[in-house]
Amino acid sequence: MFILDQHSSIACQYLAEIRDVETQKDPLRFRQNLRRLGQLLAYEISKTLHFESREIETPLTKSSAKFLKDDVVVISILRAALPFSQGFQDLFDRAEFGFIGAARLPHAANEPVEIGLNYLATPNLNEKTVIVVDPMLATGKSIVKSIESLFENGKPKSLHIATTIAAPEGVSYVKDNLNTAYNLWSCALDEKLNEKYYIVPGLGDAGDLAFGQKL
Ligand SMILES: O=P(O)(O)OC[C@H]1O[C@H](OP(=O)(O)OP(=O)(O)O)[C@H](O)[C@@H]1O
Ligand SMILES: O=c1cc[nH]c(=O)[nH]1
Ligand SMILES: [Mg+2]
């Protein structure tokens, strides 16, 4: 598992701002910080991808230059993923994109979380480099159920899971329940889940903070 916030960098400040209740009052900054964290994580993931050399012509001479060889598909888990995945769209500007609607169904504290899937739009995933993006990895159930549903649409060459904040419980759940090889990337690894399965210290509800409370 790769964690972005292990060394001091500007990522620390973006993370601090999305967590802080005062800064959270500015939803534009909240979305912008998620987008910037998405850009930084996309850059880290790009270092593991494959590149090929091609000849280009500068105004001065012919030269050899490297281009991304892998066919990247970025999958966003609606709705909270949208600002974070914008950062992936910024960097992987020639990628294909897919979307899954997944939401935790209403549940009482300490009762198990169930996930409802209600929308799926994806390109063919066969032999693609698939990056599944969701800012919060809490119980891990949304990501596992989404990926199981996605993989009915093809067998990717490789799978990356990218989150902003992960809980140890979610990391373990993915490890125990996802029946395929993957790389997990997160901006931060937090302490635990609370009785409502929110990440602590976390940031609260990412979807509500970005877009307003759901009915
Ligand atoms: O790891 P889990 O326990 O499954 O929780 C994480 C999920 O919860 C949030 O979505 P939410 O259900 O709040 O929907 P939203 O994006 O519409 O806010 C978040 O964006 C993840 O998809
Ligand atoms: O802490 C959490 C857990 C799930 N979804 C969120 O938005 N935040
Ligand atoms: Mg939400």
Automatic annotation (TrEMBL):
Keyword GTP-binding: yes
Highest rank taxon of the organism: Bacteria
Co-factor requirement: Mg(2+)
Record function comment: Catalyzes the conversion of uracil and 5-phospho-alpha-D-ribose 1-diphosphate (PRPP) to UMP and diphosphate.
Coiled coil feature spans: none
Biochemical pathway: Pyrimidine metabolism; UMP biosynthesis via salvage pathway; UMP from uracil: step 1/1
Residue span(s) of domain Phosphoribosyltransferase: 13-212
Any one GO MF annotation of this record: uracil phosphoribosyltransferase activity
Family designation: Belongs to the UPRTase family.
Species of origin: Roseivirga spongicola
InterPro entries, A to Z: PRTase-like, PRTase_dom, PyrR_bifunctional
Reaction catalysed by this enzyme: UMP + diphosphate = 5-phospho-alpha-D-ribose 1-diphosphate + uracil
EC number: 2.4.2.9
The name this protein goes by in its record: Uracil phosphoribosyltransferase
Keywords: Allosteric enzyme, Glycosyltransferase, GTP-binding, Nucleotide-binding, Transferase
NCBIfam families named among the record's database cross-references: PRK00129.1
